[in-house]
Amino acid sequence: MYRRRLARQRASRKRIKSFFVVVIVIGTTLAIIKGVSLIPDGLVHAKKSDKRTLGSVCLDPGHGGSDTGANNQDLYERDLNLRVAERVESILENDGYKVYMTRTTNDPYLTNNDRVTFCNGKNTDILVAIHQNYFTDSATDYTTALYYNQNSRGLAASLANAEAARLGTTNNGIASFDDGELMRAKMPAALVEGFFISSDREYSLISAAGSTRLADEASGIVQGVENYFKNPNQKPTQDTVLDQADSPE
After folding, report:
1. Beta 171-176 vs 98-101: how paired, if at all?
2. Structural domain boundaries of the chain?
3. Which residues contact 50 (CB under 8 A, 6 or more apart)?
4. What's CA 13's distance to the chain center, in Å?
5. Are the C-beta atoms of 147 and 176 separated by less than 8 Å?
6. What percent of the chain is predicted at pLDDT more than 70?
């Protein structure tokens, strides 16, 4: 009699155990389907797709709309600026940065106030305006970056240094420039000019079949941005006075 009772108790415990196992399996399956986390509060359960934001950047492709900027034959600065900015945006976002663009097409005409108001509204860490330079002498070609506030010197230096290294151009350093966008920016802001669109050499490099010139320019800007976030106290090769050739078109 005792043995029978013991056997019934053991069988009952097995049925209860099996019942709870089934309940747990069903509950877990439903939770997965509904996307409910069973991990207790306080434990880290980040998705694999989550990325830590390394910093935020407002990119401003210069000119746009009826304002084509400088040109050299069939090359227009408005178009080149946007093409470069799109590449910069793609790379930076892939690297973990949050990026905003003042324009994403060639249609809108934007004033400097429109641009800086947009960037200030996004409250980004930095503002990078992308331009190409122009001069009447088609042999002139170098890289430079412009700034207004002293807290922007490091950003300008970082952009000029990285861009010149990537493009293989002469690094003409940085220069202070009284620009409405740079003046009113609430964050470190710089205007980078990778090369002279008026240069015969640059025209040939950009127009060549399979050209990577604009991709290289974008890579230089990306490197300058990432170097700045690692060390905001970048030093320029020289800090010059803005001259006629440096003035953005």
Report:
1. unpaired
2. 1-48, 56-246
3. none
4. 61
5. yes
6. 76
